[in-house]
Every structure is written in structure tokens, then in C-alpha cells.
Amino acid sequence: MTWSEMQPLLVQGTIDTLYMVLWATVVSILGGLPLGILLVLTDKGGLLRNTLVNKTVGAIVNIGRSLPFIILLIALIPFTTLVVGTFIGPTAMIVPLAIGAIPFFARLVETAVREVDHGLVEAVQSMGGSIPTIVRKVLLPQALPSLVSAVTTTVIVLIGYSAMAGAVGGEGLGSKAVTYGYQRFDTTFMLVTVVILIGIVTVVQLLGDGVVRLLARRGRTTS
User: How many other CB atoms are found less than 10 A from the CB of residue 191?
Assistant: First the structure.
């Protein structure tokens, strides 16, 4: 296959991959952030200590994290069809991608929030700060660099998931690599898709690291 033949396929595959990863990331943040915070708040010594809730949410998150993505992808076909109307295509793949990433991101959020100095929480609480205020004014701002790092890691995981999803009807670079690289024994096409995926991951990591360093510097300046 010549470069002129490969180019439109690779461009469309890249667009589909970025589309799936972008929206799956948004949904993962919206779902995983409150779950991670809830795990901290309901744990021992937390502001909303509740063993039953903590264990239940923790178990759900652990089960979600333990399932191999390819199995989750197949298991969610009926649900994906119910939500989107189909189980193939980049839009349909957003559903299993997000559901697979939410528990992963939730644990990263939990770890990030636990790193916040408990003395700051106690100080705001002693001044009459409500739990929403503590979360909004203390936990999230103090954990922001770690949260950005968590988002970066989640995006990179989703890029890998999207390539896997592409192999079973999700379009994107994974689909192009299987259809035009593997099935047609086109090593060059396969190699180019791998290079593009590595490039996307590298850019995401560099951007994430840059934002984390910027936030860390601002934190040192204001402290």
C-alpha cells in the first residue's frame, strides 16, 4: 500500500481514536472523581465514615478494575446497544471505554486525595466548613497536581483500550491496524499505526507532566 493510500485511512483512524478517548476521558472523570472522593470520605477516620458504603463502593471498583477489557467489552454489548443503539463504531465504544476506566480512575483519585494534609482538613472543619466546602476548597485544590497526573495515566490507558476496541468493531487506529495491517500482511501499515499511537501517548504524557510541574510551582509560590 502506497503512502497516498495509507494517509486517509490513518487520518480517519487517528480522528476516531482521539474522539473515543476524549469522550471516554470526560465520562471517566465525571464518574471516577466522585467515587474516589467517596472512598476517602467514608473510610476510617473520614468525614463521612461509613463502613458499609466504603466496602460496597470499594468492592464495585475492585471488580471493575479486575475485569479484562476485552471481556468487559463483549459483556457490555447489550448495554451499549441500549444506550447508543449499536455496539459498533467509535461512539458505541465510548460506553465500554468509560465503564472500564471509571474504576481505574477512581482508585487513582482516592490515592491522590489521601495525600492531602489532614491538618488542613481539620483546620477548615474547625472553622465550620461543611463537607462540600472541604472537598471544594481543600481536597480538590491540594490534590490537583496528583489528579492531573491521574487523568494523564487514565488517558494513556484509554488509548490502549481504544486500540483493543478497534479490533472488534470500534474503528480507530486499532481497527485500521487489524484490517489493513494484520489481515493484509502489510507490515509497513502496522508499523505506522504503532508509531502514531506511541506519538499520541508521548504527547499526552508530556502535556500532563508539564501541567503537573506548573501546578507544583504555583503551589510552592502560594504556600
Answer: 12
In order, the DSSP letters of 109-166 are HHHHHHTS-HHHHHHHHHTT--HHHHIIIIIHHHHHHHHHHHHHHHHHHHHHHHHHHI
List all residues 6 or more positions away from 154 whose beta carbon is below 8 Å from its beta carbon: 25, 28, 29, 32, 101, 104, 105, 108
pTM, to two decimals:
0.90
Cell 504527547 found at: 203
pLDDT tens-place string over residues 30-49: 999 999 999 999 998 888 89
**DSSP code for 85:** S
CB 32 within 8 A of CB 101: yes
